[in-house]
Amino acid sequence: MQISITDVIITLLSIKPTYLIGGLFFYFGTYLMRAVRFSLLLNHSVNVRELVPLMCIHNMMNTIFPVRTGEISYIYLLKKVHKRTTGEGVATLVVSRVFDFILTILLLIVSAFFIHNIPTIVMSFLWLVIFILFLLLILIIALISYGHSFLTLFGRILAILDIEKTKAGKLLFQKGEETIESFEKMNIRRVIIPVIFISLFIWLFNIATMYLIFIGMKITIPIQNIVFGATFLNIAMFLPINGIAGFGTTEAMWTLIFIPLGMTTDEAIISGFSYHIISLIYILLFGLIGSCIIKWKNATE
């Protein structure tokens, strides 16, 4: 059977509004939890209510722009709207991504134990990805723990390249110092437990959103398969391989992941496009609302 845009439209129209509204509610929960996490990492210097619109815009930019360049929007908006330093933006973003990595790996491993007959090629790729993420995690933790040593090394590299006294070199080193100082102010040990639980809730809301949309599309695969597929898909989203708005990349990864997890080829292709469209509507809706709130706030100040 050849898949057409008509099949996707029929699938989208067949989903009951209850599931779409429920998915929207749970998806907003991810923004709320992210705002709580960032507020905690910023030592409550910016409250949750003020951070929610920023989270909406950040996620929209991260989705629209290719190779995860949208991450910069968080750092920019935090500085422009909330008067935080670039270093604080970089430090809190890096730490939040570290915890996202940790939860992704843990959920992937746990869900894999409850799935039978995972193809060898999928498991081989899984362990390769886990190994790469583990190395990246060690690197980031080392950066957080031994920031000044990294900064000294960075200064030497700038000197070797003979750019340490240029305007760009001075700016890079200054932002590096700000980031290290922000890591130190954050006091990771104090916030590690609540941040882990908040990160878990972010994942639970994400999975709940996907589960409701799956039910709406009348796709019945075990919940552990959904958890495994969602986390595996999220790993692909972490990597800087996304195109504009994720089109093409998301559908390809979705099909490769969910066919071995129990979907037919037709189901995987149609559900991949349908879920991507629904999630884009959620993201753009919240992103536009967040933009309007920040614009209104700036106009009234």
UniProtKB/TrEMBL annotation:
Compartments it resides in: Cell membrane
Main subcellular location: membrane
Gene Ontology annotations for the cellular component aspect, listed alphabetically: plasma membrane
Keyword annotations: Cell membrane, Membrane, Transmembrane, Transmembrane helix
Any Pfam family: LPG_synthase_TM
Keyword Membrane applies: yes
Membrane topology classification: Multi-pass membrane protein
Record field: transmembrane: 12-33, 98-118, 125-146, 191-214, 226-248, 268-294
Superkingdom, taxonomy of origin: Archaea
Family listed: Belongs to the UPF0104 family.
Protein name: Flippase-like domain-containing protein
